[in-house]
Amino acid sequence: MKKMFFGIMLAASFLLVMNTSCSDPIFSSIREEVELEDADVSGAIYSIVRYKDDLYTQNGKIYKKAQANILESHSWDEFSAPPVSATYPYANKLAADENYLYVQVTKINSDDMEGENVTDGSEIWCWQNEEDGWKQVQIQTGTDSETGEATYTSSFSKNTATLFCTNAVQAAHRIAYLRWDGKIYKLNGATVTESLTLGTDDNTTVPNSTSRNCAYFEGKVYFTTEAAMVTNETADSDATMLFRVEGDDTIYYRFESGEWTKWYGVGYNIYSLAATGRTGTMTDGYLVVGTSAGLWLLHFNEEGGCDGDITSSFKNTSATLSSYYRIHADLVVDPSKTLLESTIYASADYSGSSSSTSASTKNRGLWSYLGSTRTSWNRE
Predict the structure, then answer these.
(1) Which of 159, 197, 243, 348 is the most buried (most CB within 10 A)?
(2) pTM, whole model, 2 decimals?
(3) 292 pLDDT above the threshold of 60
(4) CA separation for the pair 284, 280 (Å, rounded)
Protein backbone atom coordinates (compact mmCIF):
# COMPACT_ATOMS: atom_id res chain seq x y z
CA MET A 1 0.00 0.00 0.00
CA LYS A 2 2.84 2.34 0.86
CA LYS A 3 4.54 1.54 -2.46
CA MET A 4 1.33 2.23 -4.37
CA PHE A 5 0.86 5.54 -2.54
CA PHE A 6 4.45 6.55 -3.26
CA GLY A 7 4.05 5.71 -6.94
CA ILE A 8 0.90 7.79 -7.21
CA MET A 9 2.54 10.76 -5.48
CA LEU A 10 5.64 10.52 -7.68
CA ALA A 11 3.57 10.47 -10.85
CA ALA A 12 1.50 13.43 -9.63
CA SER A 13 4.62 15.38 -8.77
CA PHE A 14 6.05 14.73 -12.22
CA LEU A 15 2.88 15.97 -13.92
CA LEU A 16 2.83 19.04 -11.69
CA VAL A 17 6.43 19.93 -12.60
CA MET A 18 5.78 19.48 -16.31
CA ASN A 19 2.62 21.57 -16.20
CA THR A 20 4.09 24.43 -14.16
CA SER A 21 7.55 24.65 -15.75
CA CYS A 22 6.72 25.33 -19.38
CA SER A 23 8.22 28.81 -19.19
CA ASP A 24 11.15 27.88 -16.96
CA PRO A 25 14.44 29.00 -18.61
CA ILE A 26 16.03 25.57 -18.22
CA PHE A 27 13.13 23.80 -19.92
CA SER A 28 13.06 26.52 -22.57
CA SER A 29 16.74 25.92 -23.34
CA ILE A 30 16.16 22.15 -23.55
CA ARG A 31 13.38 22.69 -26.08
CA GLU A 32 15.67 24.94 -28.09
CA GLU A 33 18.61 22.56 -28.15
CA VAL A 34 20.08 21.85 -31.59
CA GLU A 35 22.83 19.34 -32.21
CA LEU A 36 25.96 21.45 -32.50
CA GLU A 37 28.42 20.88 -35.32
CA ASP A 38 32.19 20.85 -34.99
CA ALA A 39 33.76 24.24 -35.64
CA ASP A 40 36.05 25.00 -38.57
CA VAL A 41 37.00 28.42 -37.22
CA SER A 42 37.45 28.57 -33.45
CA GLY A 43 39.23 30.84 -30.99
CA ALA A 44 39.24 34.62 -30.48
CA ILE A 45 37.70 36.45 -33.44
CA TYR A 46 37.48 40.25 -33.60
CA SER A 47 36.55 40.91 -37.22
CA ILE A 48 34.30 39.57 -39.98
CA VAL A 49 34.74 41.67 -43.13
CA ARG A 50 33.52 41.89 -46.68
CA TYR A 51 36.17 41.97 -49.41
CA LYS A 52 35.13 41.78 -53.05
CA ASP A 53 32.21 39.32 -52.99
CA ASP A 54 33.66 37.09 -50.26
CA LEU A 55 33.84 37.06 -46.44
CA TYR A 56 37.01 36.98 -44.35
CA THR A 57 37.64 36.40 -40.67
CA GLN A 58 40.61 35.78 -38.35
CA ASN A 59 41.59 33.84 -35.25
CA GLY A 60 45.37 34.30 -35.45
CA LYS A 61 45.13 32.88 -38.95
CA ILE A 62 43.06 34.30 -41.83
CA TYR A 63 40.06 32.47 -43.29
CA LYS A 64 38.02 33.08 -46.44
CA LYS A 65 34.50 32.00 -47.35
CA ALA A 66 33.83 32.32 -51.08
CA GLN A 67 30.64 34.00 -52.29
CA ALA A 68 29.21 30.70 -53.55
CA ASN A 69 29.28 29.29 -50.00
CA ILE A 70 28.19 32.28 -47.93
CA LEU A 71 24.60 31.05 -47.47
CA GLU A 72 25.82 27.60 -46.41
CA SER A 73 27.48 26.35 -43.24
CA HIS A 74 31.24 25.87 -42.90
CA SER A 75 33.26 25.98 -46.19
CA TRP A 76 35.90 28.31 -44.71
CA ASP A 77 39.35 27.98 -46.30
CA GLU A 78 42.53 29.09 -44.62
CA PHE A 79 43.90 32.09 -46.55
CA SER A 80 47.54 32.79 -47.22
CA ALA A 81 49.42 34.63 -44.46
CA PRO A 82 51.73 37.62 -44.95
CA PRO A 83 55.46 36.84 -44.49
CA VAL A 84 55.83 38.50 -41.09
CA SER A 85 59.18 37.93 -39.39
CA ALA A 86 58.14 36.63 -35.96
CA THR A 87 58.11 33.39 -34.03
CA TYR A 88 54.33 33.49 -33.79
CA PRO A 89 52.71 36.00 -36.18
CA TYR A 90 49.11 36.47 -35.02
CA ALA A 91 46.43 37.97 -37.31
CA ASN A 92 44.25 39.88 -34.84
CA LYS A 93 42.23 42.32 -37.00
CA LEU A 94 41.02 42.60 -40.60
CA ALA A 95 39.74 45.53 -42.66
CA ALA A 96 38.97 46.11 -46.32
CA ASP A 97 38.27 48.79 -48.89
CA GLU A 98 37.09 48.43 -52.47
CA ASN A 99 40.50 47.27 -53.69
CA TYR A 100 42.48 45.82 -50.80
CA LEU A 101 42.21 43.42 -47.87
CA TYR A 102 44.21 44.54 -44.82
CA VAL A 103 45.42 42.55 -41.83
CA GLN A 104 47.03 43.69 -38.60
CA VAL A 105 49.52 41.09 -37.42
CA THR A 106 50.83 41.07 -33.86
CA LYS A 107 54.45 39.92 -33.67
CA ILE A 108 54.96 37.43 -30.84
CA ASN A 109 58.55 36.29 -30.35
CA SER A 110 60.12 33.83 -27.97
CA ASP A 111 62.59 35.30 -25.48
CA ASP A 112 65.29 32.65 -24.96
CA MET A 113 66.79 34.54 -22.03
CA GLU A 114 63.50 34.76 -20.08
CA GLY A 115 62.01 31.55 -21.43
CA GLU A 116 58.72 33.22 -22.37
CA ASN A 117 56.99 34.87 -25.31
CA VAL A 118 56.96 38.64 -25.74
CA THR A 119 54.87 40.93 -27.96
CA ASP A 120 56.97 43.09 -30.26
CA GLY A 121 54.33 45.38 -31.72
CA SER A 122 52.46 44.86 -34.98
CA GLU A 123 52.57 45.31 -38.74
CA ILE A 124 49.86 46.09 -41.34
CA TRP A 125 49.81 44.19 -44.63
CA CYS A 126 47.57 44.50 -47.69
CA TRP A 127 46.43 42.05 -50.36
CA GLN A 128 45.03 42.79 -53.82
CA ASN A 129 45.61 39.70 -55.92
CA GLU A 130 47.49 36.41 -56.11
CA GLU A 131 50.09 37.79 -58.49
CA ASP A 132 51.20 40.64 -56.23
CA GLY A 133 50.66 38.75 -52.99
CA TRP A 134 50.93 40.47 -49.58
CA LYS A 135 52.63 43.88 -49.33
CA GLN A 136 53.61 45.58 -46.09
CA VAL A 137 51.90 48.92 -45.46
CA GLN A 138 54.27 51.80 -44.77
CA ILE A 139 53.41 55.23 -43.39
CA GLN A 140 55.38 58.31 -44.44
CA THR A 141 56.77 59.93 -41.30
CA GLY A 142 58.84 62.78 -42.74
CA THR A 143 61.70 63.66 -45.05
CA ASP A 144 65.39 62.88 -44.72
CA SER A 145 67.22 66.17 -44.09
CA GLU A 146 70.23 65.15 -46.17
CA THR A 147 68.76 63.30 -49.14
CA GLY A 148 65.35 64.94 -49.25
CA GLU A 149 63.78 61.54 -49.64
CA ALA A 150 60.66 60.49 -47.78
CA THR A 151 61.07 58.40 -44.63
CA TYR A 152 58.63 55.66 -43.70
CA THR A 153 57.74 53.34 -40.84
CA SER A 154 56.17 49.92 -41.26
CA SER A 155 56.33 48.54 -37.72
CA PHE A 156 54.20 49.84 -34.87
CA SER A 157 54.85 49.61 -31.15
CA LYS A 158 52.56 47.52 -28.95
CA ASN A 159 49.03 48.95 -28.54
CA THR A 160 49.69 52.00 -30.73
CA ALA A 161 47.99 50.96 -34.00
CA THR A 162 44.28 50.34 -34.62
CA LEU A 163 42.91 49.06 -37.93
CA PHE A 164 39.24 49.74 -38.80
CA CYS A 165 36.92 50.15 -41.78
CA THR A 166 33.36 50.98 -42.89
CA ASN A 167 32.68 47.32 -43.86
CA ALA A 168 29.82 48.57 -46.04
CA VAL A 169 27.56 46.28 -48.06
CA GLN A 170 28.25 48.23 -51.25
CA ALA A 171 31.88 47.83 -52.34
CA ALA A 172 32.16 51.48 -53.44
CA HIS A 173 31.44 52.54 -49.84
CA ARG A 174 34.18 50.42 -48.26
CA ILE A 175 37.03 52.49 -46.83
CA ALA A 176 39.78 51.41 -44.43
CA TYR A 177 41.73 53.46 -41.88
CA LEU A 178 44.66 53.14 -39.52
CA ARG A 179 44.95 55.06 -36.26
CA TRP A 180 48.54 55.42 -35.20
CA ASP A 181 50.50 57.86 -33.05
CA GLY A 182 47.43 60.06 -32.48
CA LYS A 183 46.75 60.40 -36.21
CA ILE A 184 44.22 58.84 -38.61
CA TYR A 185 45.38 57.57 -41.99
CA LYS A 186 43.14 56.58 -44.90
CA LEU A 187 44.59 53.41 -46.41
CA ASN A 188 44.90 52.85 -50.15
CA GLY A 189 47.36 50.06 -50.68
CA ALA A 190 50.89 49.70 -49.38
CA THR A 191 51.99 53.35 -49.17
CA VAL A 192 50.35 56.12 -47.14
CA THR A 193 51.76 59.61 -47.46
CA GLU A 194 49.56 61.84 -45.28
CA SER A 195 47.14 61.77 -42.38
CA LEU A 196 43.63 63.20 -42.17
CA THR A 197 42.77 66.53 -40.60
CA LEU A 198 41.54 65.93 -37.06
CA GLY A 199 38.81 67.56 -35.03
CA THR A 200 37.81 67.32 -31.37
CA ASP A 201 34.16 66.22 -31.60
CA ASP A 202 32.96 62.63 -31.77
CA ASN A 203 30.45 60.90 -34.07
CA THR A 204 30.95 63.33 -36.94
CA THR A 205 32.50 63.25 -40.41
CA VAL A 206 35.79 64.55 -39.00
CA PRO A 207 37.82 62.00 -37.00
CA ASN A 208 39.62 62.80 -33.77
CA SER A 209 42.81 61.35 -32.33
CA THR A 210 41.01 58.41 -30.66
CA SER A 211 38.54 57.40 -33.39
CA ARG A 212 38.38 53.62 -33.80
CA ASN A 213 35.24 52.82 -35.83
CA CYS A 214 33.34 54.29 -38.76
CA ALA A 215 30.45 53.90 -41.20
CA TYR A 216 29.53 55.29 -44.63
CA PHE A 217 26.39 57.45 -44.51
CA GLU A 218 24.98 60.32 -46.63
CA GLY A 219 27.95 60.11 -49.01
CA LYS A 220 30.47 60.63 -46.20
CA VAL A 221 32.28 58.63 -43.54
CA TYR A 222 31.23 59.13 -39.91
CA PHE A 223 33.79 58.36 -37.20
CA THR A 224 33.33 57.28 -33.59
CA THR A 225 35.52 56.58 -30.58
CA GLU A 226 33.09 53.89 -29.42
CA ALA A 227 33.13 50.17 -30.13
CA ALA A 228 30.57 50.00 -32.96
CA MET A 229 28.82 51.97 -35.71
CA VAL A 230 26.64 50.62 -38.54
CA THR A 231 24.02 51.66 -41.14
CA ASN A 232 21.05 49.88 -42.72
CA GLU A 233 22.58 50.04 -46.21
CA THR A 234 21.66 47.25 -48.62
CA ALA A 235 23.18 46.15 -51.92
CA ASP A 236 20.56 48.12 -53.87
CA SER A 237 19.79 51.04 -51.54
CA ASP A 238 21.88 53.60 -49.70
CA ALA A 239 21.51 53.81 -45.96
CA THR A 240 18.62 55.75 -44.42
CA MET A 241 19.73 55.25 -40.79
CA LEU A 242 23.00 55.34 -38.89
CA PHE A 243 23.43 53.63 -35.51
CA ARG A 244 26.20 54.05 -32.95
CA VAL A 245 27.09 53.28 -29.35
CA GLU A 246 27.51 55.80 -26.53
CA GLY A 247 28.80 55.20 -23.04
CA ASP A 248 29.56 51.55 -23.86
CA ASP A 249 25.97 50.31 -23.49
CA THR A 250 23.49 52.72 -25.12
CA ILE A 251 22.46 52.89 -28.78
CA TYR A 252 21.78 56.15 -30.63
CA TYR A 253 20.48 56.62 -34.17
CA ARG A 254 19.99 59.36 -36.75
CA PHE A 255 18.11 59.66 -40.02
CA GLU A 256 19.41 61.39 -43.10
CA SER A 257 20.10 65.06 -42.29
CA GLY A 258 18.78 64.44 -38.79
CA GLU A 259 20.03 64.71 -35.24
CA TRP A 260 21.31 61.98 -32.97
CA THR A 261 18.51 60.43 -30.88
CA LYS A 262 18.89 58.13 -27.90
CA TRP A 263 17.25 54.79 -28.68
CA TYR A 264 17.91 51.99 -26.20
CA GLY A 265 20.16 51.17 -23.24
CA VAL A 266 21.24 47.54 -23.24
CA GLY A 267 22.89 47.67 -19.81
CA TYR A 268 25.92 45.68 -20.96
CA ASN A 269 29.02 46.62 -22.96
CA ILE A 270 28.27 46.66 -26.68
CA TYR A 271 30.99 45.33 -28.98
CA SER A 272 29.28 45.04 -32.37
CA LEU A 273 26.20 46.09 -34.36
CA ALA A 274 24.59 44.74 -37.53
CA ALA A 275 21.30 45.78 -39.18
CA THR A 276 18.76 43.54 -40.91
CA GLY A 277 15.09 43.28 -41.81
CA ARG A 278 14.90 46.56 -43.73
CA THR A 279 11.83 46.36 -45.95
CA GLY A 280 11.76 49.80 -47.51
CA THR A 281 10.64 52.32 -44.91
CA MET A 282 12.90 54.12 -42.48
CA THR A 283 11.27 53.09 -39.23
CA ASP A 284 11.48 49.35 -39.36
CA GLY A 285 14.12 46.67 -39.14
CA TYR A 286 16.29 45.07 -36.48
CA LEU A 287 19.69 45.44 -34.88
CA VAL A 288 21.75 42.37 -34.06
CA VAL A 289 23.80 43.53 -31.07
CA GLY A 290 26.92 41.80 -29.78
CA THR A 291 27.37 42.45 -26.05
CA SER A 292 29.32 41.33 -23.01
CA ALA A 293 26.20 39.31 -22.09
CA GLY A 294 25.57 37.44 -25.32
CA LEU A 295 23.72 38.26 -28.54
CA TRP A 296 20.76 40.65 -28.39
CA LEU A 297 18.11 41.35 -31.00
CA LEU A 298 16.38 44.75 -30.97
CA HIS A 299 13.43 45.84 -33.12
CA PHE A 300 13.07 49.38 -34.44
CA ASN A 301 9.29 49.79 -34.40
CA GLU A 302 7.00 52.08 -36.40
CA GLU A 303 6.99 54.73 -33.67
CA GLY A 304 10.78 54.91 -33.78
CA GLY A 305 11.13 53.17 -30.42
CA CYS A 306 12.56 49.86 -29.29
CA ASP A 307 10.49 46.87 -28.23
CA GLY A 308 13.33 45.53 -26.07
CA ASP A 309 15.30 42.34 -26.46
CA ILE A 310 13.44 39.83 -28.65
CA THR A 311 16.27 37.35 -29.13
CA SER A 312 13.74 34.56 -28.62
CA SER A 313 12.75 35.18 -32.27
CA PHE A 314 15.79 33.07 -33.08
CA LYS A 315 15.23 29.39 -32.40
CA ASN A 316 18.14 28.55 -30.09
CA THR A 317 20.02 31.72 -29.17
CA SER A 318 19.47 31.36 -25.43
CA ALA A 319 21.00 27.89 -25.59
CA THR A 320 24.03 28.99 -27.64
CA LEU A 321 25.09 32.66 -27.78
CA SER A 322 23.82 33.30 -24.28
CA SER A 323 24.84 35.72 -21.53
CA TYR A 324 27.85 33.52 -20.77
CA TYR A 325 29.54 34.83 -23.94
CA ARG A 326 30.94 38.06 -25.35
CA ILE A 327 30.02 38.71 -28.98
CA HIS A 328 32.90 40.75 -30.40
CA ALA A 329 31.86 40.76 -34.06
CA ASP A 330 28.70 40.23 -36.07
CA LEU A 331 27.72 40.71 -39.71
CA VAL A 332 24.47 40.47 -41.69
CA VAL A 333 25.12 39.40 -45.28
CA ASP A 334 22.01 40.97 -46.84
CA PRO A 335 20.16 43.55 -44.65
CA SER A 336 17.23 43.64 -47.11
CA LYS A 337 16.13 40.16 -46.07
CA THR A 338 13.51 39.66 -43.41
CA LEU A 339 14.86 38.79 -40.00
CA LEU A 340 14.32 35.04 -40.19
CA GLU A 341 15.53 34.89 -43.81
CA SER A 342 18.79 36.63 -42.95
CA THR A 343 22.26 35.10 -43.01
CA ILE A 344 24.12 36.30 -39.92
CA TYR A 345 27.62 35.59 -38.65
CA ALA A 346 28.83 36.27 -35.10
CA SER A 347 31.86 35.44 -32.98
CA ALA A 348 31.69 34.21 -29.39
CA ASP A 349 34.28 34.41 -26.62
CA TYR A 350 34.31 34.58 -22.83
CA SER A 351 36.48 35.88 -20.02
CA GLY A 352 37.69 33.88 -17.06
CA SER A 353 37.64 30.10 -16.92
CA SER A 354 34.86 28.06 -18.48
CA SER A 355 34.17 26.45 -15.11
CA SER A 356 33.50 29.82 -13.50
CA THR A 357 31.20 31.09 -16.27
CA SER A 358 29.45 27.89 -17.43
CA ALA A 359 30.73 28.74 -20.91
CA SER A 360 32.30 26.07 -23.11
CA THR A 361 35.66 26.33 -24.84
CA LYS A 362 34.10 24.46 -27.76
CA ASN A 363 31.84 27.47 -28.35
CA ARG A 364 34.68 30.01 -28.69
CA GLY A 365 34.77 30.99 -32.33
CA LEU A 366 32.56 31.73 -35.31
CA TRP A 367 28.80 31.03 -35.40
CA SER A 368 26.14 31.49 -38.05
CA TYR A 369 22.38 31.72 -38.50
CA LEU A 370 21.49 30.70 -42.06
CA GLY A 371 17.92 31.76 -42.74
CA SER A 372 17.72 30.08 -46.16
CA THR A 373 19.27 26.73 -45.24
CA ARG A 374 19.42 26.30 -41.43
CA THR A 375 17.12 28.32 -39.18
CA SER A 376 19.13 27.99 -36.00
CA TRP A 377 22.50 29.13 -34.65
CA ASN A 378 25.38 26.70 -34.99
CA ARG A 379 29.15 26.65 -35.00
CA GLU A 380 31.00 27.50 -38.16
Answers:
(1) 348
(2) 0.89
(3) yes
(4) 8
